[in-house]
Design a protein that fits this description.
The mean pLDDT is about 95. This protein is an alpha/beta fold. About 25% of the residues lie in helices and about 30% in strands. Strands 8-2-1-12-19-18 form a 6-stranded mixed sheet. A 6-stranded mixed sheet has the order 6-14-15-16-13-17. Strand 3 and strand 4 form a beta hairpin. It has 2 domains: about 130 residues, 3-Layer(bba) Sandwich (FAD/NAD(P)-binding domain); about 170 residues, Polyamine Oxidase, Chain A, domain 2 (Alpha-Beta Complex). It binds flavin-adenine dinucleotide. The site of flavin-adenine dinucleotide has 37 residues, from helix 1, strand 2, helix 4, strand 13 and strand 17.
């Protein structure tokens, strides 16, 4: 079968890897490369994991999937020193990161997959018994027997027709935003932690990005806003957001961070999941459309992997699609 996958984050790539042995798979990604929310922003001489900071492992399935990457040191422990403030708590589970940047895992997965980057799918059209993907430039791609979206729930809802049986669930799924402030310094700072988790808005998390394994040496800090706070300020002036986060982060660090020579703000419109779909994936056998992603199961890296893996099982099962 010809299968189109929208999105080259961990879910889309996990799915593509599994399905490509038995099917003709095409992957379309609107960004310049794979990674999605596990991405790395380079700004010479700095690099920032401006999406996922680290991830944890609960299931044997995810653990087994990661092992070959751990063997090659592409996935490694982050031996950090965390301080929790404002009522925040952090589990003592092992924290893993990809190296040399968070996008390393998705890049490795995408290596031998036909990812077409820089293609922003706008909508789907029927073509006889199949589907055409129409991109923002008006190009018609396909036809495909199946289309699977791994885009965040709101974006999947907009892409798929109203007749998709999962539309109600997509509408009930809620995601929240996040601001990421990337700070690069010419001289290293003396901070007593490598990561700080805050329970008080506007800051949710701060980390010395350059302390992660394999990152460029020049000293860098990544500041993330609280998700609910971001949700209330998504459309505010970015300069104002940057100033608010910089002041609040300096107060938490008890160090003036305004001397950073590199200060760039990134807005994630859909970062975390407030209300998950509550099902590992959504599938409409009649329309031959399906959706997966972290938002199905709870909004973490492991959830993205498990959602895609369970959807792939469905395609591989004898009674499946
Ligand atoms: C700021 C931030 C911090 C986070 N921190 C953590 C953390 O510490 N630990 C943790 O476990 N998780 C964290 N997460 C969540 C984690 O990043 C996600 O759970 C995971 O990366 C989701 O993977 P995914 O494949 O489901 O979705 P995504 O990575 O979002 O992949 C979807 C892809 O679809 C593409 N796409 C969307 N629409 C279209 C379209 N129309 N056409 C073409 N392509 C399209 C997008 O560009 C994207 O690449 C964080 C996320 C953010 C943003």
């Amino acid at each position: 079968m010809k299968i189109a996958i929208i999105g080259a984050g961990l879910a889309g790539l996990t799915l593509a890897k599994r399905l490509s042995s038995a099917h003709e798979v095409s992957i379309y990604e609107k960004a310049r490369g794979p990674g999605g929310r596990m991405s790395t922003r380079r700004a010479d001489p700095y690099a920032f994991d401006h999406g996922a900071q680290y991830f944890t492992v609960e299931s044997d399935r995810f653990r087994a999937f990661l092992q070959p990457f751990r063997d090659k040191d592409l996935i490694t422990r982050w031996p950090k020193q965390v301080e929790c403030v404002g009522g925040a708590r952090l589990s003592d589970k092992e924290k893993l990161v990809a190296a040399p940047g968070m996008n390393g895992l998705c890049k490795a997965l995408a290596d031998d997959l036909p990812v077409q980057a820089g293609v922003h799918i706008d909508h789907l059209e029927r073509d006889g018994g199949g589907w055409l993907l129409v991109d923002k430039a008006g190009a018609r791609l396909g036809p495909f027997d199946w289309v699977i979206s791994s885009a965040p729930s709101v974006q999947t809802a907009a892409l798929f027709p109203d007749a998709f049986s999962g539309q109600t669930t997509l509408d009930q799924t809620e995601m929240t935003g996040c601001f990421a402030l990337m700070l690069g310094f010419e001289t290293p700072l003396e901070l007593p932690w490598t990561a700080l988790k805050s329970g008080t808005a506007p800051i949710g998390w701060m980390a010395v990005n350059s302390s992660k394994p394999g990152r460029p040496e020049p000293y860098s800090i990544l500041v993330q806003s609280d998700n609910e706070w971001a949700e209330q300020h998504l459309e505010d002036d970015p300069d104002e957001i940057r100033a608010i986060l910089l002041e609040a982060a300096s107060a938490l660090a008890r160090t003036d961070l305004s001397g950073a020579s590199h200060q760039v703000l990134h807005r994630w419109r859909y970062a975390a999941t407030r209300t998950p779909a509550g099902a590992p994936y959504l599938i409409d056998q009649d329309l031959q459309l399906a959706a997966c992603g972290d938002w199905c199961l709870g909004g973490k890296v492991e959830a993205a992997f498990l959602s895609a893996s369970e959807l792939a099982d469905q395609f591989e099962s004898p009674s499946g699609t």
